[in-house]
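Run AtzE family amidohydrolase through structure prediction, thanks.
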Amino acid sequence: MDGSQNAIEIANAIRLGTVSALRVTEAALADIARHDGRYNSFTTVTAGRALQEAAAVDAARDRGERLPPLAGVPYAVKNLFDIAGLPTLAGAKINQSHAPASTDAQLVQAMQRAGAILLGALNMDEYAYGFTTENHHFGPTRNPHDPTRSAGGSSGGSAAAVAAGLVPLTLGSDTNGSVRVPSSMCGLFGLKPTYGALSLQGMFPFVHSFDHAGIFARSAQDLSLCFDVLQGNTSADSTPRLVSDTPRLARLGGYFEQGDAQAQAAVATVCKALQVTQVVELPEVARARSAAYLITASEGGNRHLTRLRMQAADFDPLTRPRLAAGTTLPAAWYLQAQRLRRWFFEQAMQVFASTDVLIAPATPCCAQPLGQEDMVINGNRMPLRPNMGMFTQPISFIGLPVVAVPVHLPGQLPIAVQLIGAPGKEAQLLQLAHHLQSLSVCQSPVVRN
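Sure, done. The structure for AtzE family amidohydrolase is below.
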């Protein structure tokens, strides 16, 4: 095995007996030991467990048993997923003293039933509140395309591990963009499904109203197979489910045209490949994003109120002031924000009455240097960390499914485009992402610097 193989290729090779799951696992563990010091994507490597799981896959194959779809495929999870025997860190120093999890998170259990091999837990912004994975407790995660730059966040470790070829699949979470922003920064395919489509059981919560589980991969086929597995379909094949009707496509204009030249060029590239000419707008997107901020701050601050009172000094300095501010928000503001959420969802459903897939940038620019405080977009200076999510936050605000597809423009760092659908339309988005990959418009090669 080498880091360029995707999950389906690895599973097929193991199923055919051309390589053993143990050999694949040993090679992946050696790769992590050799390369991850440069990227800091892993916070814990579960080598003993991984070798045991791999041996079990090989024994099942030797007995002539039918192997499940991800048998022998290495993967890892954001460190807010429960892993039996380990404390669930959620990127926090405070959580290091917590009791170890007694059982795996439900999605980790689903991956194990599908035969996948867990290699460890991955770095993140503390309590998932950030877009750059500049974690003061566990160190920043570095972008494999340029280690001086951010891998995005809060699932930055999940993205960097896949981009560097350490594992072909990772699980993350997305509350306001934490799958789509790292997908854009690291040049990956990422899935944020419909709100509620995947179980959150055994995942450390951030904002109940917006929390989603999500997936990173280097191919749309891997995303599709993994999504099926996480929904409990262990007989899934590797082909994105076919959707009979040709989707009606449109580019999101107005608010979503604020990105820099590279972000807009990426959207134009995808639209040209798909022959998209229609432009539509969602109303009051800026207000929707503001409402999402209020709900995030209020729910996040309330969740951590006791910790803020008792252990304020132990919080990451990038996280503490935002959570503390959230504890002071008036209840009336929170309720008004939730009312706007319902209204904005209804407006989006009116757009989907005549359009199936909306196309928009995932981030306003490509990955920026670690430690940078501001960015300039079209002549406007703005804080970098919150505004990396300016195009993702209004979409997760109303729980719509999104596939992020990577676009590599000549001579530039990668950046992603969002394919946005109506609730429950993941299959249509995954098929469209697969089509773009087959056209070589969207690719995600392994990179190590």
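The mean pLDDT is 96.
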